[in-house]
Amino acid sequence: MIKKNFTKKDLANKLHKNLGFSKNYSLELISDFFEAITSELTYTGIIKISSFGTFQVFNKKQRMGRNPKTKKQFQISARKVVRFKPSSLIKNRLNKL
Asked: Are 82 and 41 in contact (CB under 8 A)?
């Protein structure tokens, strides 16, 4: 299986082809969608999209890391990360492939 990144531009092109929106409008729509998700995650920390999945913000604690090449240890700072849990509908679709 070849790994290929799926970009905002690719998504906008799909909207353009499938729905007939202009390419500029499609790209603006995608950008606004991701901006809405980002700001909602910042504000509430969780987003549930029906039949798709859940995005949730988690806090990671500070920890020690190690460079595998040099074996040198260093401090990894505390940070927030977003986790995605797909819905059962998405899981079922993926497993039927």
From this structure: yes
